[in-house]
């Protein structure tokens, strides 16, 4: 969040009128023509920079001011502050002609870098940056006395080839490759010259160059790398560092012959291997083509960095630099081995030793990801077993480093990048979803998009049901991880510190450490699947964690669960077999009342359950008969209406829709009667009219769905028609009772009465009722189920008119509202 003063300035910048902006630009134009640049000029340019950057659209500035700013930008004699501001303003304003900026590039390195930043930002195509590219390449070939131009060249070149990889020809790629080899491998071994005071009576003198040292203080005995330490650096050492920073993108962009990867050659692996063996054994790698030689030197450079990373750094900053160099070096070696498989045999001893050194140190967890990527890409080529690497990666990193946001993001990105390979080749990938979901539980708002994409790859037939339970328990996992972190930070004996967390959190921390509940927390924090789909004492766990339900982290985590459930069901229903569908239906019936009590969480989850209950029954209607006992038990309990009305309504609807011999020959009259009697009892109980009765707490929609379902079941066992007709005849009394009139609108009560009379009229013609209320299994696709102008609604109106020509009730509503 910005401070109030900053917000005010940004608002003023966005709201400035065009006329006022033009006058302000005119004043700046006059200030820039004065000989001496004052503080007012700098202040005005800063304000203009804020104005043009504060809006999403580019502001159009006067052409004379733009030309003056370009002049300032290209003038090496101007103060650097003015060049920076001019570059910022031109980049954010409407695009000028970049050709004028490139027409006569400056040889001053600082000026050229500012001009290049504008050109690369404003360029619309490759032709716009071509003059800049030619100047860059010319500067690489030249040997200027100051040596400064090249240091700014490589960052600009790296950005250019990222945007326009095809801009370089084969000869130009070879030229740059040769230069990169020289900078990467042949930098000087002495520190740069530094000026020191010669004392009070003498002027400054130049110190003799001192040798470079390793991070542990030992004098460097091999070639220079970014891990060599000195007080100052020579130009070729700076170029060595710049080269290492861009070598990865260079190798990814250009292949062996200097063309882009989009036009890769078809040279066989045998030829590539032969070339690499030559590079490995030749006494002079200068005989190799430029790109092959660059590979060789880059490979040696990475090996040296990995060796240097084993040294004990004297400074903490050097330790962090070692970690970064390991990640980058392994990634570069992975790219090189991908281009030339014979490098795999040279790389694996080094990578194995590195893994053996790092796998027990959690501070190097991020470095394990490129190592795992290397094993994933090349272990089959080298016939190396990688199982231990991935067991360590998926079991320990998420469990112990889930609270590291950068590691979480990189870990999930690694899984996304390799999802298909991990499914096929890594046995414990899908088994590790309890661990992977810890990243999401702790960083839910930052990783939801990635997990929506990753979740389908984690679904396997043998663990799909356990995954569903785990998704539903995700808020519990977030709460348990929070308690685990707090418990690790505070000792049980330090009650003062515990109590500072708040009474509710302190109570949860006490429960977390009690042996009685240890099994519950061990399950919810389990590292891998296979210990059971869920636990019997889940309700007890919810009670223990009740005081954590308002934690911001738990609430945010609960908000992502409905999104994941949608992805889960959409994926599973495409490939689930009959057994899995039966299991999922049981989970829906069981878990709709076993959810962590978080505000709006239960309602949102039940909405998803309702939607996919219909989808499951539509895909496999025999589910109603398969799970008749559980469905009947759920539907016969009026208590379910008050706590989960939406889901209950959908259960009643699927009973009426799919409990039919048309869908399953096992659907007997006895089964239909048992469902009818249970629903009849429910409808009778909730529509009882008593003087002391409170207003109904359920919607009219539930009443109409129950009536319609009872009518549907009666048409399939016509002995039940008199009973349902009697039940429906009492609906007018219910709808016109005082408690109902006080709660429902006139439109709602009229809808209940109308529906009851339409159904009574329809049931007077049982054969017609059977056709209307119980269509055949193949009859759910024609348009008349949705089209109000088609035959079914007209048929309903015709039947109602024939039987009750003088009725004052309204005609039937379209079919779509019969259950909604």
Short note summarizing the structure:
The protein is mostly helical. Helix content is 65%, strand content 0%.
Kindly describe this structure.
With 820 residues, this protein is an all-alpha fold. Strands 1-2 form a two-stranded antiparallel ribbon. The longest helix has 24 residues, at 316-339. Residues 1-280 form the AP-5 complex subunit zeta-1 N-terminal TPR domain. Residues 450-802 form the AP-5 complex subunit zeta-1 C-terminal TPR domain. One of its GO terms (cellular component) is AP-5 adaptor complex. Residues 321-438 form the AP-5 complex subunit zeta-1 ARM repeats domain.
Q: The biggest beta sheet, please?
A: 2 strands, antiparallel
Described by the principal axes of the CA atoms, the overall outline is elongated
Strand content: under 5%
Please work out how many helical segments DSSP would assign.
42
> Which bin fits the share of residues in helices?
55-70%
Radius of gyration: 37 Å
Ranges where pLDDT stays below 50 over 5 or more residues in a row are 257-283, 779-792, 806-820
* Annotation, overall tally of beta strands: 2
- The secondary structure category is mainly alpha
What is the CA–CA distance across the termini?
Answer: 45 Å
Average predicted confidence as pLDDT: 83
Widest sheet, order of strands = 1-2
Organism: Cyprinus carpio (Common carp)
Protein name: Adaptor related protein complex 5 subunit zeta 1
Summarize the topology:
Elements: H1 4-15, H2 18-32, H3 39-53, H4 63-74, H5 80-92, H6 98-102, H7 109-122, H8 126-141, H9 149-163, H10 170-185, E1 195-196, E2 205-206, H11 235-253, H12 269-281, H13 290-308, H14 316-339, H15 343-358, H16 365-378, H17 387-401, H18 405-417, H19 419-425, H20 433-442, H21 444-458, H22 464-472, H23 474-489, H24 495-500, H25 503-513, H26 518-524, H27 538-544, H28 552-575, H29 578-591, H30 601-619, H31 623-626, H32 628-635, H33 639-643, H34 645-658, H35 669-686, H36 700-716, H37 721-729, H38 731-735, H39 738-743, H40 746-763, H41 766-773, H42 791-803
Antiparallel strand pairs: 1-2
Helix pairs in contact: 1-3, 2-3, 3-5, 4-5, 5-7, 7-9, 8-9, 9-11, 10-11, 10-13, 11-14, 13-14, 14-15, 14-16, 15-16, 16-17, 16-18, 17-20, 18-21, 20-21, 20-23, 21-28, 22-28, 22-29, 23-25, 23-28, 28-30, 30-34, 34-36, 35-36, 36-37, 36-40, 36-41, 37-40
């Amino acid at each position: 969040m910005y401070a109030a003063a900053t917000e005010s300035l940004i608002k003023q910048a966005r709201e400035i009128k065009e006329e006022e902006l033009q006058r302000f630009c005119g004043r700046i134009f006059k200030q820039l023509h004065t000989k001496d640049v004052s503080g007012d000029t700098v202040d005005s340019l800063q304000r203009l920079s804020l104005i043009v950057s504060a809006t999403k659209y580019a502001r159009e500035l006067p052409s004379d001011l733009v030309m003056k700013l370009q002049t300032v930008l290209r003038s090496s004699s101007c103060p650097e502050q003015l060049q920076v501001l001019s570059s910022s303003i031109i980049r954010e304003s409407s695009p000028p002609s970049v050709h004028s900026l490139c027409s006569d590039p400056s040889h001053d390195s600082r000026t050229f870098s500012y001009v290049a930043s504008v050109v690369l930002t404003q360029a619309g195509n490759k032709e716009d940056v071509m003059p800049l590219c030619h100047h860059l390449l010319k500067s690489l070939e030249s040997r200027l006395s100051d040596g400064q131009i090249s240091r700014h060249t490589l960052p600009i070149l790296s950005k250019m080839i990222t945007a326009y990889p095809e801009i370089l020809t084969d000869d130009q790629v070879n030229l740059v490759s040769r230069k990169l080899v020289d900078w990467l491998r042949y930098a000087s071994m002495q520190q740069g010259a530094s000026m020191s005071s010669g004392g009070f009576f003498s002027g400054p003198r130049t110190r003799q160059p001192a040798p470079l040292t390793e991070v542990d203080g030992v004098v460097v005995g091999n070639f220079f790398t970014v891990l060599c330490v000195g007080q100052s650096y020579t130009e070729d050492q700076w170029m060595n560092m710049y080269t290492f920073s861009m070598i990865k993108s260079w190798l990814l962009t250009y292949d062996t012959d200097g063309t882009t990867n989009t036009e890769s050659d078809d040279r066989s692996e045998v030829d590539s291997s032969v070339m690499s063996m030559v590079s490995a054994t030749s006494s002079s790698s200068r005989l190799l083509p430029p790109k092959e030689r660059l590979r060789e030197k880059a490979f040696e450079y990475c090996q040296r960095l990995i060796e240097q990373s084993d040294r004990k750094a004297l400074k903490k900053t050097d330790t962090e630099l070692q970690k970064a160099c390991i990640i980058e070096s392994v990634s570069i070696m992975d790219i090189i081995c991908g281009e030339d498989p014979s490098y795999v045999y040279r790389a694996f001893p080094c990578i194995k030793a590195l893994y053996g050194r790092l796998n027990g140190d959690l501070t190097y967890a991020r470095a394990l990801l490129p190592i795992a990527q290397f094993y994933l890409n090349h272990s089959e080529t080298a016939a190396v077993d990688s199982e231990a690497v991935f067991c360590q990666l998926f079991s320990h990193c998420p469990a112990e480093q889930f609270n590291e946001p950068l590691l979480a993001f990189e870990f999930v990105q690694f899984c996304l990048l390799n999802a298909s390979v991990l499914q096929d080749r890594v046995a414990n990938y899908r088994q590790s979803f309890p661990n992977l979901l810890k990243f999401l539980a702790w960083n839910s708002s930052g990783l939801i998009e990635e997990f929506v994409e990753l979740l389908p790859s984690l679904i396997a037939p043998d663990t799909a049901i356990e995954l569903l339970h785990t998704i539903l328990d995700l808020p519990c996992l977030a709460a348990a991880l929070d308690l685990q972190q707090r418990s690790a930070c505070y000792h049980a004996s330090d009650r003062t510190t515990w109590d500072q967390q708040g009474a509710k959190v302190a109570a949860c921390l006490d429960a977390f450490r009690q042996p009685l509940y240890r099994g519950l927390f061990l399950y919810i924090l389990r590292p891998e699947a296979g210990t059971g789909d869920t636990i019997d004492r889940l309700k007890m766990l919810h009670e223990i964690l009740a005081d954590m339900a308002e934690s911001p982290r738990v609430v945010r985590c609960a908000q992502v669960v409905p999104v994941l459930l949608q992805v889960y069901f959409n994926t599973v229903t495409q490939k689930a077999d009959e057994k899995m569908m039966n299991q999922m239906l049981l989970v829906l019936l069981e878990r709709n009342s076993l959810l962590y009590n978080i505000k709006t969480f239960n309602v949102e989850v039940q909405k998803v359950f309702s939607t996919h209950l219909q989808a499951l029954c539509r895909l496999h209607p025999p589910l109603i008969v398969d799970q008749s006992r559980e469905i009947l038990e759920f539907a016969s309990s009026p208590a379910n209406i008050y706590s989960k009305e939406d889901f209950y309504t959908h259960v009643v609807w699927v009973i009426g829709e799919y409990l039919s011999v048309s869908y399953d020959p096992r659907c007997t009259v006895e089964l239909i009667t048992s469902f009818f009697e249970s629903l009849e009892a429910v409808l009778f109980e909730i529509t009882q009219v008593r003087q002391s009765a409170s207003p109904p707490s359920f919607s009219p929609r539930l009443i109409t769905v129950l009536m319609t379902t009872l009518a549907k079941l009666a048409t399939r066992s016509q002995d039940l028609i008199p009973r349902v007709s009697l039940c429906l005849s009492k609906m007018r009394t219910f709808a016109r009772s005082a408690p109902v009139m006080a709660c429902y609108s006139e439109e709602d009560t009229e809808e209940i009465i109308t529906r009851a009379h339409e159904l009574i009229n329809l049931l007077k013609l049982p054969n017609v009722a059977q056709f209307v209320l119980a269509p055949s299994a193949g009859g759910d696709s024609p348009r008349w189920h949705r089209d109000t102008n088609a035959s079914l609604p007209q048929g309903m109106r015709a039947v109602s008119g024939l039987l009750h020509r003088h009725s004052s009730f309204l005609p039937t509503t379209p079919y779509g509202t019969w259950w909604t």
